[in-house]
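Retro notes
What went well: the complex prediction finally ran end to end.
Inputs used:
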Amino acid sequence: MNRRTLRTCSRCGKVFQGDIDSIMCPECAKESRQKSTIRDRICIDCGRSFPGGPRARRCPECRASRKKEMDRLRRQSGGPKRKLGSVDICQRCGKEYTVESGRQKYCPGCQRDAALEWQRGRKAAYNKRPEVEQKRKERRKKRMKACVYCLRPFWSSAATNLCSDYCRTEAERISQCRADEKRGQGRNLQKLLDRREEYRERIKSEMLQ
Ligand SMILES: [Zn+2]
Ligand SMILES: [Zn+2]
Ligand SMILES: [Zn+2]
Ligand SMILES: [Zn+2]
């Protein structure tokens, strides 16, 4: 029987539809499968074993020297297809441009934009990675505000910087007193500030216990 229920992925924490035995969401399961397919392979050139994915056929050293050899052959057989200084079509806007380097794909006007696009794509992909999202979530859990009245660390998603009704009332008292003093109504601000200082000390010692 295939009973599908809501599950929490043990890797990324996402809720997903899965059968009763699944511990990872489909994305995480796929990634962890891919990771586990990295194992020792035998290099077809030198016969040494090396860690590689299912399609890896050569060890890193042999792969590098083969690439060098292939590059040399390509250079011998007529060199690069496009000569520097020749004219080609921009792959982004279709305008003609003068080729200044062998791997150039875009006209000078598009080069910067194309590079930025590429970077943005990479960044978006990075941010979507489950482990990055997870780290962000954990960081968010650790987010803390400090109460402007008592300095106690606390968290609220509401737009407030006061941790309790008591602190809110006392903070309002202080600002009211300040406003009164400005209008020339002498009041004892210092008394309120002293009381705040006392309370801050109390909170601090409570937190140290
Ligand atoms: Zn997952
Ligand atoms: Zn090898
Ligand atoms: Zn262009
Ligand atoms: Zn407070």
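What we learned: The chain is about 45% helix and 15% strand.
What to try next: split runs per interface for comparison.
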